[in-house]
Structure formats: structure tokens, C-alpha cells
Design brief:
Layout lengths: L1 H7 L5 E3 L9 E5 H9 L3 H4 L3 E3 L2 E6 L10 E4 L9 E5 H14 L3 E3 L3 E7 L2 E6 L3 E4 L2 E3 L6 H6 L3 E17 L6 E6 L4 E7 L3 E8 L1 H8 L3 H11 L7 E17 L3 E2 L2 E3 L6
Parallel strand pairs: 1-7, 4-13, 11-18
Antiparallel strand pairs: 2-6, 3-6, 4-5, 8-9, 9-10, 12-15, 12-16, 13-14, 14-15, 17-18
């Protein structure tokens, strides 16, 4: 996205990006992010694969004697058709690459193996070549090579929780509603996808998350349906599961020595 924004502004841009791994996760894009993608000419390719988040429903599913009442927020209450949209990462990435190709952004489909900056620019060493640029923008994730090259440290705090992610189909419509069941171990969130499908994020203690991740498709489908109180009827998980230990990490600085950080590399 940074490469597209720079190229659209007339900046000569080189995109160094190896082919991404299969990603079954989804991204919930709030209204500001949708506006940014639309401004950059990306959103039209995303829209057929995105589901609107017209409502957000919160359910206290703890076992406390006194529980909070259920709450439903509607986007129309703040003058919006939707709070945002949920889209599978594979469709979002494809739309970004499509727009990058339209803008004729030069791309190297190989990972950087070393980065070094000096007062005049940044040298990026690839497997079989070297690139020299005036500014490097590191969108290279949690274990950022760019951040390390810039000598930027982070503050990190891990949580005793793990998120299990999966997409699934269900027999009843979600009515464009994102539903969050708040439990003692963390939330179980069902976020709409197009059709009768949703993405699920289930936050648990690490041991229980590992146990769920090891279940058969049939058993995991039944377990999520049970935890969701059969809200959308019978559920069937789709291929592809993710298990992610939860933590918060923020870089001490977002730029140093002609290297800037964005996305997970920064936060």
C-alpha cells in the first residue's frame, strides 16, 4: 500500500516483495482504511470479496452471576452504511498487486537478505543483486529486517492468551453483523464474509487453543458452534487454521537513518 501511495504521488518506487505464503486470515477494514484504499484505486477490486459490517453485537458470555446486557451498535447511528468491511487477505493482497501492476511499479519478487543505511541512502542486498535507494520503507512484519538495520528497539509485552483463527460456512445468514462473545478466557468473534460465511477469532489460554487447533474439522466445527450458541446454525470450518500467541509491540521510533517503518514492523 505504501508503494502504491508513493508511485501515485509521482515518486520513483521499487517494490521488494517475495510471493506471499497462503494466508487464510481476514482483515476487518474500518471506514478510514476503506477510504484510503478507494483513494489509491484499490477498493473497487476488493469490494466483490468484502462483507459490510453494518452492526456490531456484544454478548457477555462469562459465567458471572451478574452479567452485562447484550449491546448492538448500528452503523446508521453515526451516519454510515457500514462501520467497515471484512475481506480475506488473499483477495486484499491480489487487489494491491493488481493496482501495483497498473501503476507499473518495478517489483523484485525476492526477499532482502541484508540492509545497510548511510547518510546518502540505503543499500538492499538481495539473493543475486543489490538495490540502492534514497529511502527504505520497512513493511516487513514483526521480525523486521529494516527495523534491525536501523537499530530501532521495541517495547514488547506478551499476553497469556493465544488466538485461533479459521473461516467457516454456516446455515443461517449473519445479517452483516459482527458478533463478539466475551468469555472468561477472551473473546470469540465472528465477523461476516460474503454469503453465509464468517471468519472466526477465538482467544483462549495457549493449552486450550492448541487442543482446539488439533481437532478434526467436524469436531472443531461442533465446538465453535457450541461456543457461539448455534447463533448461525450448523457450522463447517474451511481449510486453513492459524494459531497466534498474543502480544503488543511498539517500535521506539518509526524512522531512523533513511529507514521508515510501517505496519507490524512499527506496531
Amino acid at each position: 500500500m505504501s508503494a502504491i501511495a508513493l508511485k501515485a504521488a509521482g515518486v520513483d518506487t521499487l517494490l521488494i516483495a517475495p510471493q506471499p505464503d497462503d494466508d487464510h486470515r481476514t482483515t476487518a477494514l474500518l471506514a478510514g482504511s476503506v477510504t484510503a484504499l478507494a483513494t489509491l484505486g484499490v477498493w473497487q477490486a476488493c469490494l466483490p470479496h468484502a462483507a459490510p459490517l453494518a452492526y456490531i453485537r456484544l454478548v457477555d458470555d462469562t459465567r458471572r452471576l451478574l452479567r452485562a446486557p447484550e449491546v448492538m451498535f448500528a452503523a446508521t447511528e453515526i451516519g454510515l452504511d457500514a462501520f467497515g468491511y471484512n475481506i480475506e487477505n488473499r483477495h486484499l493482497i491480489a487487489a494491491l498487486y493488481e493496482r501495483a501492476a497498473q501503476l507499473k511499479i518495478s517489483r523484485v519478487a525476492a526477499p532482502a537478505v541484508a540492509i545497510a543505511s548511510d547518510p546518502a541512502g540505503v543499500t538492499i542486498t538481495l539473493a543475486d543483486s543489490v538495490a540502492r535507494v534514497r529511502l527504505a520503507i520497512g513493511a516487513d512484519g514483526q521480525r523486521s529486517l529494516c527495523r534491525a538495520a536501523a537499530g530501532i528497539g521495541t517495547d514488547r509485552r506478551a499476553y497469556p492468551q493465544t488466538a485461533l483463527t479459521v473461516n467457516l460456512a454456516h446455515e443461517r445468514p449473519h445479517q452483516d453483523t459482527a458478533t463478539e462473545f466475551h468469555t472468561g478466557s477472551g473473546p470469540l468473534t465472528l465477523v461476516p464474509l460474503p454469503g453465509r460465511r464468517s471468519s472466526v477469532v477465538c482467544v483462549l489460554d495457549p493449552k486450550r487453543a492448541a487442543a482446539l487447533a488439533a481437532m478434526t474439522d467436524a469436531d472443531l466445527s461442533a465446538e465453535i458452534e457450541r461456543r457461539a450458541h448455534s447463533l448461525f446454525g450448523k457450522m463447517n470450518v474451511e481449510p486453513g487454521r492459524g494459531v497466534f500467541p498474543l502480544a503488543v509491540e511498539t517500535a521506539h521510533s518509526f524512522a531512523r537513518g533513511r529507514i521508515a517503518l510501517v505496519g507490524e514492523a512499527a506496531h
